[in-house]
């Protein structure tokens, strides 16, 4: 079932519909979960929850102007998932060419973006306009297509935050949201399994080494 973006204490709204504060991390987590759902297997209840979350993601006002057709949502998810994977692969290739001492450090987006890994264009019907309001100027897209609103909101969030917090777990290949700069694995389980695998390999190659006391368990 889709992960809810609402809580008992507060209601999370897209950053394009509020002043410049809070909640981008919640939308990045939702985005990471969304691209990994098997939408074809969703039952009616799960679909209703997902549509509610997507309305919050793209904005209540924007959600009124576009349809949430199942086929459009599935096609958009698949297209975006492929583009995201291509971008993450390109980023990993780029990072592998850097000094190991820079591992975990934030890399400027413009440096990582060359060459372009994937491109996703808005429809020819979409128009991006500047909306002047009490909190300043914000950009928004005018379109009747769900895909246009989804991609525009994704672009706004990633332009503000970069893609560094979205990573691929080297253990299970799952895409995940990193809560801190040096987080390498999606979960404690994957981190511990990788540690034991390294320990086993080292022990087999040098079983009598006094340093082979076992790996340190991760607790976070």
Report on this model:
This protein has 220 residues and is mainly α. It folds into 2 domains: 172 residues, Jann2411-like fold (Orthogonal Bundle), CATH 1.10.3300; 34 residues, no CATH class. Helices cover 43% and strands 9% of the residues. It is built from 7 helices and 4 strands; from the N terminus they run H-H-H-H-H-E-E-H-E-E-H. Strands 1-2 form a two-stranded antiparallel sheet. Strand 1 and strand 2 form a beta hairpin. Helix 1 packs across helix 6 and helix 4 packs parallel to helix 6. The longest helix is centred in the middle third of the chain and has 26 residues. It is elongated, with a radius of gyration of 20 Å. It starts with 23 loop residues before the first helix and ends in a 15-residue tail after the last helix. About 8% of the residues have low confidence.
CATH class membership of the largest domain = Mainly Alpha
Number of strands: 4
- Per DSSP, the total helix count is 7
What general outline do the C-alpha atoms trace?
Answer: elongated
Low-pLDDT parts are 6-22
Q: Write down the overall mean pLDDT.
A: 78
Task: Estimate the strand proportion.
Answer: 5-15%
CATH topology of the largest domain: Jann2411-like fold
Q: Structural class per helix/strand content?
A: mainly alpha
């Amino acid at each position: 079932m889709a992960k809810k973006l609402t809580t008992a204490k507060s209601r999370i709204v897209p950053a394009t519909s509020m002043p410049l504060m809070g909640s981008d991390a919640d939308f990045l987590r939702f985005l990471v979960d969304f691209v990994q759902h098997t939408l074809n297997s969703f039952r009616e209840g799960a679909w209703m929850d997902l549509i509610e979350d997507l309305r919050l993601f793209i904005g209540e006002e924007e959600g009124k102007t576009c349809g949430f057709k199942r086929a459009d949502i599935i096609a958009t998810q698949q297209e975006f998932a492929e583009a995201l994977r291509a971008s993450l692969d390109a980023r990993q290739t780029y990072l592998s060419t850097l000094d190991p001492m820079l591992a975990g450090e934030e890399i400027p987006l413009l440096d990582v973006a060359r060459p372009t890994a994937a491109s996703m264009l808005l429809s020819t019907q979409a128009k991006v306009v500047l909306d002047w309001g009490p909190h300043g100027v914000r950009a928004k897209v005018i379109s009747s297509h769900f895909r246009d609103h989804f991609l525009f909101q994704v672009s706004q969030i990633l332009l503000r935050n970069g893609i560094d917090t979205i990573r691929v777990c080297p253990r299970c290949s799952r895409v995940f949201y990193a809560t801190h700069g040096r987080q390498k694995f999606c979960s404690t389980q994957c981190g511990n399994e990788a540690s034991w695998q390294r320990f086993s390999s080292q022990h087999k190659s040098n079983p009598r080494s006094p340093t082979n006391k076992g790996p340190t368990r991760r607790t976070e």
